[in-house]
Amino acid sequence: MSEYLRLNRAQWDERAPAHAASPGYSRQRFIDDPAYLSDVVRFDLPRLGPVDGLRAVHLQCHIGTDTLSLYRLGAKITGLDFSGASLAEARALAAATGASIDYVQADVYDAPEVLEPGAFDLVYTGIGALCWLPDVRRWAGVVAALLRPGGRLFIREGHPMLWAVDETRPDGVLAVDQAYFERVEPLVWEESGTYVETDVTFQHTVTHQWNHGLGEIVTAVMDAGLELTMLQEHDSAPWDALPGRTVADEHGEFRLAERPWRLPQTYTLQARKR
Q: Which GO terms describe its biological process (predicted)?
Protein backbone atom coordinates (compact mmCIF):
# COMPACT_ATOMS: atom_id res chain seq x y z
CA MET A 1 0.00 0.00 0.00
CA SER A 2 1.30 3.47 -0.88
CA GLU A 3 2.16 5.91 1.90
CA TYR A 4 -0.67 8.30 1.06
CA LEU A 5 -3.25 5.51 1.16
CA ARG A 6 -1.92 4.19 4.46
CA LEU A 7 -1.98 7.60 6.14
CA ASN A 8 -5.31 8.71 4.72
CA ARG A 9 -7.12 5.46 5.41
CA ALA A 10 -5.90 5.45 9.02
CA GLN A 11 -7.28 8.99 9.40
CA TRP A 12 -10.70 8.09 7.98
CA ASP A 13 -10.90 4.81 9.90
CA GLU A 14 -10.34 6.69 13.14
CA ARG A 15 -12.77 9.50 12.41
CA ALA A 16 -15.67 7.45 11.03
CA PRO A 17 -17.21 6.56 14.44
CA ALA A 18 -16.87 10.16 15.61
CA HIS A 19 -18.54 11.42 12.43
CA ALA A 20 -21.41 8.96 12.84
CA ALA A 21 -21.94 10.13 16.41
CA SER A 22 -21.74 13.84 15.61
CA PRO A 23 -24.80 16.05 15.12
CA GLY A 24 -23.33 17.23 11.83
CA TYR A 25 -24.20 13.99 10.06
CA SER A 26 -27.73 13.79 11.55
CA ARG A 27 -27.68 9.99 11.90
CA GLN A 28 -30.61 9.87 14.31
CA ARG A 29 -32.71 12.09 12.09
CA PHE A 30 -32.20 9.66 9.21
CA ILE A 31 -33.49 6.90 11.48
CA ASP A 32 -36.45 8.88 12.82
CA ASP A 33 -37.59 10.46 9.53
CA PRO A 34 -37.88 8.12 6.49
CA ALA A 35 -38.06 11.13 4.18
CA TYR A 36 -34.98 12.92 5.50
CA LEU A 37 -32.18 13.70 3.02
CA SER A 38 -28.65 14.93 3.63
CA ASP A 39 -28.02 18.65 3.21
CA VAL A 40 -25.60 17.92 0.37
CA VAL A 41 -28.10 15.95 -1.70
CA ARG A 42 -31.00 18.29 -0.86
CA PHE A 43 -29.00 21.31 -2.07
CA ASP A 44 -28.58 19.80 -5.52
CA LEU A 45 -32.07 18.37 -6.03
CA PRO A 46 -32.95 20.96 -8.73
CA ARG A 47 -29.78 20.01 -10.63
CA LEU A 48 -29.75 16.28 -9.93
CA GLY A 49 -33.12 15.58 -11.50
CA PRO A 50 -34.97 12.27 -11.12
CA VAL A 51 -32.88 9.24 -10.14
CA ASP A 52 -35.74 6.81 -9.52
CA GLY A 53 -34.83 3.39 -10.89
CA LEU A 54 -31.30 4.37 -11.89
CA ARG A 55 -28.46 1.99 -11.13
CA ALA A 56 -26.01 4.24 -9.32
CA VAL A 57 -22.70 4.11 -7.51
CA HIS A 58 -21.50 6.60 -4.90
CA LEU A 59 -17.71 6.77 -5.00
CA GLN A 60 -15.90 7.65 -1.74
CA CYS A 61 -19.18 7.34 0.13
CA HIS A 62 -17.76 7.59 3.70
CA ILE A 63 -20.47 6.78 6.29
CA GLY A 64 -23.24 6.68 3.72
CA THR A 65 -25.58 9.57 4.47
CA ASP A 66 -25.54 10.85 0.87
CA THR A 67 -25.77 7.25 -0.34
CA LEU A 68 -28.87 6.68 1.77
CA SER A 69 -30.34 9.94 0.48
CA LEU A 70 -29.96 8.78 -3.14
CA TYR A 71 -31.56 5.46 -2.18
CA ARG A 72 -34.51 7.36 -0.71
CA LEU A 73 -34.87 9.20 -4.01
CA GLY A 74 -35.28 5.84 -5.74
CA ALA A 75 -31.79 4.99 -6.96
CA LYS A 76 -30.54 1.39 -6.88
CA ILE A 77 -27.35 2.45 -5.15
CA THR A 78 -23.96 0.94 -4.34
CA GLY A 79 -21.51 2.73 -2.06
CA LEU A 80 -17.73 2.36 -2.39
CA ASP A 81 -15.07 3.53 0.05
CA PHE A 82 -11.55 2.49 1.08
CA SER A 83 -12.26 2.83 4.80
CA GLY A 84 -13.61 -0.29 6.48
CA ALA A 85 -14.64 1.69 9.55
CA SER A 86 -16.60 4.14 7.39
CA LEU A 87 -18.42 1.30 5.66
CA ALA A 88 -19.24 -0.31 9.01
CA GLU A 89 -21.04 2.90 9.97
CA ALA A 90 -22.73 3.10 6.54
CA ARG A 91 -23.99 -0.48 6.81
CA ALA A 92 -25.25 0.13 10.34
CA LEU A 93 -27.18 3.19 9.17
CA ALA A 94 -28.67 1.28 6.24
CA ALA A 95 -29.72 -1.52 8.58
CA ALA A 96 -31.26 0.91 11.07
CA THR A 97 -33.32 2.55 8.32
CA GLY A 98 -34.27 -0.61 6.42
CA ALA A 99 -32.39 0.48 3.29
CA SER A 100 -31.14 -2.10 0.80
CA ILE A 101 -27.73 -0.71 -0.13
CA ASP A 102 -24.64 -2.63 -1.25
CA TYR A 103 -21.35 -1.39 0.15
CA VAL A 104 -17.96 -2.35 -1.28
CA GLN A 105 -14.57 -1.66 0.27
CA ALA A 106 -11.95 -0.64 -2.28
CA ASP A 107 -9.74 2.24 -3.32
CA VAL A 108 -11.62 4.40 -5.80
CA TYR A 109 -9.00 3.73 -8.49
CA ASP A 110 -9.82 0.01 -8.21
CA ALA A 111 -13.58 0.51 -8.64
CA PRO A 112 -13.76 -0.96 -12.19
CA GLU A 113 -12.11 -4.14 -10.87
CA VAL A 114 -14.57 -4.71 -8.00
CA LEU A 115 -17.74 -3.37 -9.65
CA GLU A 116 -19.33 -4.13 -13.00
CA PRO A 117 -17.82 -1.89 -15.70
CA GLY A 118 -20.21 -0.13 -18.04
CA ALA A 119 -23.22 -0.99 -15.88
CA PHE A 120 -24.13 2.25 -14.09
CA ASP A 121 -26.58 4.96 -15.08
CA LEU A 122 -25.16 7.38 -12.51
CA VAL A 123 -21.79 7.89 -10.84
CA TYR A 124 -22.18 10.23 -7.88
CA THR A 125 -19.43 11.90 -5.88
CA GLY A 126 -20.00 14.29 -2.98
CA ILE A 127 -18.17 16.96 -1.07
CA GLY A 128 -14.54 16.47 -0.07
CA ALA A 129 -13.59 13.53 -2.29
CA LEU A 130 -11.24 14.59 -5.09
CA CYS A 131 -8.73 16.24 -2.76
CA TRP A 132 -7.69 12.76 -1.54
CA LEU A 133 -6.70 11.60 -5.04
CA PRO A 134 -3.30 12.33 -6.61
CA ASP A 135 -4.41 12.01 -10.26
CA VAL A 136 -7.70 13.49 -11.45
CA ARG A 137 -7.30 12.08 -14.97
CA ARG A 138 -7.09 8.57 -13.57
CA TRP A 139 -10.25 9.26 -11.55
CA ALA A 140 -12.09 10.45 -14.66
CA GLY A 141 -11.08 7.22 -16.39
CA VAL A 142 -12.63 5.26 -13.53
CA VAL A 143 -15.88 7.19 -13.90
CA ALA A 144 -15.97 6.54 -17.65
CA ALA A 145 -15.27 2.83 -17.12
CA LEU A 146 -18.19 2.47 -14.71
CA LEU A 147 -20.80 4.35 -16.76
CA ARG A 148 -22.92 2.81 -19.49
CA PRO A 149 -23.20 4.81 -22.74
CA GLY A 150 -25.54 7.71 -21.96
CA GLY A 151 -24.92 7.40 -18.21
CA ARG A 152 -23.91 10.46 -16.28
CA LEU A 153 -21.48 11.72 -13.70
CA PHE A 154 -22.81 14.05 -11.00
CA ILE A 155 -20.49 15.68 -8.51
CA ARG A 156 -20.64 18.52 -6.02
CA GLU A 157 -17.23 19.30 -4.66
CA GLY A 158 -15.16 21.88 -2.84
CA HIS A 159 -13.90 24.50 -5.28
CA PRO A 160 -10.15 24.38 -6.01
CA MET A 161 -10.02 28.12 -5.33
CA LEU A 162 -11.26 27.47 -1.80
CA TRP A 163 -8.65 24.74 -1.27
CA ALA A 164 -5.93 27.19 -2.38
CA VAL A 165 -6.85 29.80 0.26
CA ASP A 166 -4.91 30.09 3.51
CA GLU A 167 -7.66 30.33 6.13
CA THR A 168 -5.29 30.63 9.10
CA ARG A 169 -4.07 34.21 8.67
CA PRO A 170 -4.72 36.23 11.84
CA ASP A 171 -5.38 39.42 9.86
CA GLY A 172 -8.40 37.85 8.16
CA VAL A 173 -7.05 38.36 4.64
CA LEU A 174 -8.06 35.62 2.20
CA ALA A 175 -4.69 34.91 0.64
CA VAL A 176 -4.05 32.35 -2.10
CA ASP A 177 -1.16 30.45 -0.55
CA GLN A 178 -1.66 26.79 -1.51
CA ALA A 179 -1.40 25.05 -4.87
CA TYR A 180 -4.34 25.59 -7.20
CA PHE A 181 -3.17 23.19 -9.91
CA GLU A 182 -2.50 19.49 -9.47
CA ARG A 183 1.09 18.73 -8.45
CA VAL A 184 2.93 15.45 -8.06
CA GLU A 185 3.92 16.28 -4.51
CA PRO A 186 1.08 16.07 -1.99
CA LEU A 187 0.04 18.78 0.42
CA VAL A 188 0.96 17.28 3.78
CA TRP A 189 -1.43 18.35 6.53
CA GLU A 190 -1.31 17.71 10.24
CA GLU A 191 -4.70 18.28 11.89
CA SER A 192 -5.67 17.05 15.32
CA GLY A 193 -9.40 17.64 14.83
CA THR A 194 -12.05 17.10 12.19
CA TYR A 195 -14.72 19.08 10.37
CA VAL A 196 -17.66 18.14 12.63
CA GLU A 197 -18.36 18.71 16.31
CA THR A 198 -16.74 16.04 18.50
CA ASP A 199 -14.80 15.74 21.73
CA VAL A 200 -12.79 12.73 20.51
CA THR A 201 -8.99 12.98 20.66
CA PHE A 202 -7.47 11.57 17.48
CA GLN A 203 -4.13 9.83 17.13
CA HIS A 204 -3.86 9.80 13.32
CA THR A 205 -3.35 13.41 12.33
CA VAL A 206 -1.21 13.43 9.14
CA THR A 207 -2.81 13.27 5.69
CA HIS A 208 -1.71 13.70 2.08
CA GLN A 209 -3.99 15.72 -0.20
CA TRP A 210 -3.96 17.23 -3.69
CA ASN A 211 -5.74 20.12 -5.35
CA HIS A 212 -7.00 19.94 -8.93
CA GLY A 213 -7.77 23.07 -10.94
CA LEU A 214 -11.29 23.41 -12.29
CA GLY A 215 -9.97 23.34 -15.86
CA GLU A 216 -7.97 20.20 -15.09
CA ILE A 217 -11.10 18.47 -13.78
CA VAL A 218 -13.27 19.47 -16.73
CA THR A 219 -10.59 18.52 -19.25
CA ALA A 220 -10.01 15.15 -17.57
CA VAL A 221 -13.73 14.37 -17.71
CA MET A 222 -14.01 15.37 -21.36
CA ASP A 223 -10.86 13.48 -22.37
CA ALA A 224 -12.30 10.37 -20.71
CA GLY A 225 -15.18 10.41 -23.19
CA LEU A 226 -17.83 12.40 -21.32
CA GLU A 227 -19.66 15.50 -22.53
CA LEU A 228 -20.02 18.33 -20.03
CA THR A 229 -23.70 19.16 -19.53
CA MET A 230 -23.55 21.42 -16.47
CA LEU A 231 -21.03 23.38 -14.44
CA GLN A 232 -22.24 25.73 -11.72
CA GLU A 233 -20.06 27.48 -9.14
CA HIS A 234 -21.52 28.31 -5.72
CA ASP A 235 -20.56 30.95 -3.17
CA SER A 236 -21.40 28.55 -0.32
CA ALA A 237 -20.34 25.24 1.21
CA PRO A 238 -22.23 22.78 3.44
CA TRP A 239 -19.55 23.03 6.12
CA ASP A 240 -17.77 25.96 7.72
CA ALA A 241 -14.64 26.06 5.56
CA LEU A 242 -13.52 29.46 6.86
CA PRO A 243 -14.38 29.64 10.57
CA GLY A 244 -14.91 33.14 11.89
CA ARG A 245 -15.51 34.56 8.42
CA THR A 246 -18.80 32.95 7.45
CA VAL A 247 -22.50 32.94 8.26
CA ALA A 248 -24.88 30.00 7.82
CA ASP A 249 -28.25 30.16 6.12
CA GLU A 250 -31.36 28.18 7.02
CA HIS A 251 -30.23 25.27 4.82
CA GLY A 252 -26.86 24.82 6.52
CA GLU A 253 -24.86 26.49 3.74
CA PHE A 254 -21.97 28.74 4.85
CA ARG A 255 -21.03 31.93 2.97
CA LEU A 256 -18.52 34.67 3.61
CA ALA A 257 -20.09 37.21 5.95
CA GLU A 258 -18.56 40.04 3.94
CA ARG A 259 -18.89 40.17 0.14
CA PRO A 260 -19.50 36.45 -0.44
CA TRP A 261 -19.22 36.98 -4.20
CA ARG A 262 -15.43 37.15 -3.80
CA LEU A 263 -14.89 33.41 -3.43
CA PRO A 264 -16.39 30.29 -5.04
CA GLN A 265 -16.56 27.65 -2.33
CA THR A 266 -18.09 24.71 -4.18
CA TYR A 267 -19.21 23.69 -7.65
CA THR A 268 -21.64 21.21 -9.21
CA LEU A 269 -20.60 19.38 -12.36
CA GLN A 270 -22.55 16.99 -14.54
CA ALA A 271 -21.31 15.12 -17.61
CA ARG A 272 -22.76 12.38 -19.80
CA LYS A 273 -20.85 9.47 -21.34
CA ARG A 274 -20.95 9.53 -25.12
A: methylation
* CATH value at residue 223: 3.40.50.150
Cβ contact 271:152 at 8 Å: yes
The pLDDT assigned to 186 comes to: 97
Contacts of 167 (CB under 8 A, 6+ apart): 174, 241, 242, 243, 245
Start-end of H helices in 98-203: 111-114, 136-146, 160-163
Closest-CA residue to 45 (of 138, 124, 113): 124
Domain containing 199 equals 3-273
**Confidence (pLDDT) at 201:** 83
Amino acid identity, residue 95?
A: A
pTM of this prediction?
A: 0.96
Strands 55-59 and 120-125: parallel
**How many independent structural domains does the chain possess?**
1
pLDDT in tens, 216-268: 999 999 999 999 999 999 999 999 999 889 999 998 899 999 999 999 999 99
